[in-house]
From TrEMBL:
Alphabetical list of SUPFAM superfamilies matching this protein: TPR-like
InterPro entries xref list: TPR-like_helical_dom_sf (IPR011990)
Keywords: Signal
Protein's UniProt keywords contain NADP: no
Entry protein name: Flp pilus assembly protein TadD, contains TPR repeats
Endpoints of the signal sequence: 1-25
Amino acid sequence: MRHRLCYFLALAGTLALSGCMGSDAQVSRSLESVNVIDATNLSEVMLTVADPDEAVAYFSRASTEKPDRIDLKRGLGRSLVRAGKPTQAVAVWREVLNMPDTTPDDRVDLAEALIRTNDWKEAKAVLDTIPPTHETYQRYRLEAMVADSEKDWKRADSFYDIAAGLTTKPAGVLNNWGYSKLSRGDYKGAEKLFAEALVQEPGLFTAKNNLVLARAAQGHYALPVVETTQAERAQLLYTAGLTAIKRGDITIGKGLLEDALETHPQHFEEAARALEALEARG
């Protein structure tokens, strides 16, 4: 921070000197360049760590003030998705595609927003307009999800595999791929993918829970050896217990629910209700 302050002080001194030696127009251009740098940094913060609703407000205001700035409109579209407002995001991305200097990534973002509104047909149509040479993680992740929605498992597997190879953080897509396998009844294949996801990101709880689901669906109710908090362990026991009950292993399922209640550091309402319902059935 001190180095940055020194930089801006030095820059301010330079601008003051240039004001003495040059025209006001030169100074204005220099100041505008600094403002652009600051605005770019602020946009990046808004897209990553800012509260989603605050980001929406920022980009909405900025894009209204400067309607020709496609980067601000893109920021608005992405912020709306983060804020859980995909329908509004779809409208914004359609506006982006009518502006100059659009890229294939803009179509990918539109497809993602459409998927979030459950418009799989239109999402597929948008993805089909993207040149095959545009090979990105995000594009193939969405292609895999669309193929999943159509139960085209061969294409889904191919796209998931490509997507996983195009990112340095494949845990999320491996988890999605595993869930796809789980929904098909390929429990062993799903278990392998969830385990791979946890190698990449040991703290990914969704993958932990899905791993327990895949194992329990095969009758393996012992929890896998993964790092967990006490609350997470209780949740995993609960998941295993419900799966056991669904498979008809009532006694085992009841025991797992009791373990979940004892393990949780606080009152585990869901497990308590499930156990009460089970006991009421006799």
